[in-house]
Amino acid sequence: MAKALKKNNPKKELRVDGERLYKALHDLGEVGAYKDESTGIVGVNRLALSEADGAGRRKVVSWMKELGLSVSVDQIGNVYAERRGETDLPPVMMGSHIDSVPTAGRFDGCLGVLGALEVMRTLSESGLTTKRPLVAAFFTEEEGCRFGTDMLGSAVATGRIPLEAAYALKDAQGLTVKGELEKTGFLGPEAVGRRKPHAYLECHIEQGPSLRHDGFEIGVVTGVQAISWQELTIVGKSAHAGTTPMEFRKDAGVAAARINLKLREMIASGMFGKGMRATMGVNRPHPGMVNVVPGRVVCTVDLRHPEDGFMEEVERELVAFYKQVEKDEGVSISWRQTARTAMAPFSDEVQSVVEGAANELGLSNTPILSGAGHDAQEWSRACKTAMVFVPGEYDGISHNPREFSTLKQCADGVNVLLGAALTLTED
Ligand SMILES: [Zn+2]
Predict the structure, then answer these.
(1) Distance CA 413, CA 112 (A)
(2) Helix (H/G/I), strand (E/B), else coil: 49
(3) For residue 178, how far is its CA from the centre of ligand 1 (angstroms)?
(4) Which partner for 130 in 58, 137, 413, 425 could form a disulfide, CB atoms 3.0-4.6 Å apart?
(5) Structural domains in the chain?
C-alpha cells in the first residue's frame, strides 16, 4: 500500500542508490562504446538517431518499463515516462538527453536521464506516492552534431522550432530527421507541444573546471548565457607574396587576424561587462599557400555573454569594426548569423528549491551560470525551470572520452534532484 507523501514527512531520509545509478551509467555507456586510438580510453559515439542511439533508446525505454512507468514517444522522438501521482495536476518533469557527440564520455546528458530514473526507482522502493505525477524524459538531438541544430527535440516540444522544419533537417549524407526517426522506430504519435509541466529539473555535469576548482559539490544553475555565432566571408585579392608591394595588397588573412584580435581587445577594455567570451574557431584562408597573399578567408565568431544588453552592444561594435577593416584593408566582408539564443534565466523559485535540497544534504553549493546550451533552456520557456550541476574531474573535460565524474559526485547531484523534485511535486 503506497504511503501518501505529506509535507514534513520521512522522505527527508530518502537517498538514491549511488552504486545502482553508476552501474546504469556504465551499462548505457557500453552502447556505442569505442576505444580511443591515442589514449586507449573507452569513449562513447551515439550520434542522434544513429543505430547506436536507437539501441541506447531501446535500453532506456526497457528500464522505464521495468519500473512500471507509462512511456510515450512524441512526433520528434522525445520519450516521456510518467509515474502517477495522487492527483492529475501538471507533473514535475526531469530530463536530459542520451545522444552524444562522436567522441563523448558516458556522463553528458545520461546523468540527467538515468538520474531521473533512479529518483523514480528510489520512490517506488519506498512505496511513496507524490501529489503531482513525475516524468522522466529524454530529448532528441540535443548535441546538434548530426543534423546541425542543437536542443532540437526540446526546441520542437516547446515551440521554438516548427516540427516540419525539424523533419526536413539533413545530416552530411543527406538523410533527414524524419527518415531517421522512422528507421530507428522513434517517430512517435504524441503531438508535440502537448506537455505543459508544472516545473522542469535537469541534473548535468558542469563540463567546465569551476566547481571542482572552487571546491563546491553542487552548482545551482542560474541560467544559460546568450550565444551568438557568425560566419564571415572576407574577400580581398590573391597576389604573389614576393612581388606585390605591401601598399598594393588586399590581404583577407590580415583582415581576419585583426577581427580575432579585436575580440580580445574588447574583452580587455572592460567596456562590455563581465563574463564575455569570444572565439574565432574557424579560420580558412584561400588558396592557403605559403607564398600567396590570401584572397579569401572564411572564419567564424562565437560570442557568449551572460547579459543580453551587452551581447547586443558587442554585436554592434563588431559589425562597425567590419566596416573599418573593409576600409583599412581594401577587402569586403559579408557575414551571416548561424546561431543566436538570448540569455535564458532560470526560475528564482526553483533555484532556491535546488539550493534548499543541497543544504538539506549538507552539500556545499554555489550559484553558477551555464556556459553550454541545455534542454533546460528550452523548457524554461514552458515552465519554471532550474538545473543541478555536478563537478567533473580533469578540469571538467567533456565531449571527450576522458570526461569523468565520481560515483559520489553523480549520487550527490541525483540526491539533490530527488530532494528538489519532492518539494516541487507537493506545490
Ligand atoms: Zn549535455
Answers:
(1) 9
(2) coil
(3) 22
(4) 425
(5) 3-225+344-425 (3.40.630.10), 227-341 (3.30.70.360)
